Amino acid sequence: MSTTETAAAAAPTPDDAHLQARLAKRLREVDRGERAIAAWMGVRIGARTLLIPLSHASELMPGQRPTPVPYTQPWFLGLVNCRGELAGVIDLAAYIDPETPPRHAQSFGQTRLLTFNPALEINAALVIDHMAGLKSQGDFVQAYAPRSDNPWPFLGNFYIDRDGTTWQELNLQRLSEDPRFISIGL
Fold first, then answer.
1. Beta pairing, strands 48-53 & 166-170
2. Under DSSP, is residue 65 helix (H, G, I), strand (E, B) or coil?
3. pLDDT in the model for residue 36
4. How far is CA 16 from CA 12, 20, 127, 138, 144, in A?
5. Is the pTM value of this prediction over 0.85?
6. Between the chain's N and C termini, which has fewer beta carbons within 10 Å?
7. Are 72 and 186 in contact (CB under 8 A)?
8. Taking 80 as the threshold, does the pLDDT of residue 106 lie above it?
9. What gap in Å lies between CA 117 and CA 114, rounded to an integer?
10. What average pLDDT does this structure show over 98-108?
11. What end-to-end distance do the CA atoms of the chain give, in Å?
12. What's the rounded Cα separation, in Å, for the pair 7 and 17?
């Protein structure tokens, strides 16, 4: 990647500025006691809108193209350097649905990488297609549990917001303990 491409990938976008402004506003509301403290980070991965507990996440970084690792699962995109530590990059959309089309190298500049909290003891990062900001229980009007035959134990409760969007909680701790997730080899 050239210096120009690196600078462009790291430069804040209008969406980043809008997100920062919304986060600052929410923090002021929390200080005044007008809003509950956020519990989740709202994201879109593929077609899914997901809620990731803030305690499970570590850092949100600009998307970067991972270095491929041979003989790994299609959903394991490779490795990136995250502040001197190597992290495996996971395409959760492809992990959940093997029919998901592969990501192309040029698409990484339009994504973010979310690293797992070090307390989870796994150096991994998820590809995030869109950030929706911080979410709290007060942002939702309804909640319900997944079906009892849910094949993905790391996907938890569903929440519906005031706009009618359905969100599902993604438990990164359970994901990091999934035997299939930690078996990246073919």
1. parallel
2. coil
3. 56
4. 6, 6, 16, 23, 31
5. no
6. C
7. yes
8. no
9. 9
10. 79
11. 29
12. 16
Structure tokens at 178: 């999934």
Which amino acid makes up residue 65?
R
pLDDT digits (tens, 9 = 90+) for 14-47: 566 666 666 556 556 555 554 556 799 999 999 9
CA–CA distance, 40 with 91 (Å, rounded to integer): 20
Structure tokens at 63: 């998307």
Instruction: Count other Cβ atoms within 10 Å, centred on residue 52.
Output: 23
3-state secondary structure of 3: helix
d(Cα 54, Cα 13) in Å, to the nearest integer? 23
Separation CA 127–CA 125 (nearest Å): 7
Q: Which residues pair with 82 in a beta bridge?
A: 85
Closest residue by Cα to residue 126 from 82, 165, 69, 160: 82
Name the least confident of 33-42, 79-88, 105-114, 146-155. 33-42
Q: What is the pLDDT of residue 91?
A: 95
Looking at residue 151, the DSSP 8-state letter turns out to be S
At which residue do the structure tokens 């989870």 appear? 120
Per the model's pLDDT, the better-predicted residue between 10 and 44 turns out to be: 44
